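Question: Now follow the chain.
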Amino acid sequence: MDQIEIFAAGLEISVEDDGAGQFYQRLENKKGRFNLGPQGFAKLRTQTEPYRVSHDAISADVVSDYITGDRRCEGDYVTDQGGITFHWKGQSIDQFYMVDYGCDSALHAARNKALREILASLPVPPPALMP
C-alpha cells in the first residue's frame, strides 16, 4: 500500500506510505501539509484495514458504477449527516470504502464513531458541517 486517501464533507486528505500528507479544505480554500512518519502511516493503515477487507469495500473498477447507481439505504435514513470515503492505493491495491453517516445511523453508530475518530486523529481541519 503506497497511499491512503480520505474524503469527507469538503475535505480531501492524502497520506503517503512514508507518512507525508496533505489536505485541501474546499470551503475555506485551505491547503496544508503534515507528516505522520512511517509509524503514523502504519497506524492509519491498521485503523482502516478492517474497512478495506470488509464485504462493503469496492474495487476502483466499479466505483463509478457504484456512485452513479441507484443505491438506497435499506434502513432508516437521515439526510445531511455527511460521510466518509477511504481510498487505498498501491501496486496491487485500488479499493474504496464509502459510508453515508445518515444511513441506518443507529445500527451503525459504533462504526460511524470509529470512522469519525480516525479522521479526528489526523492533523487536519474538521470536515465541513452539513447544512
User: Anything to note?
Assistant: Residues 37-52 form the longest helix (16 residues).
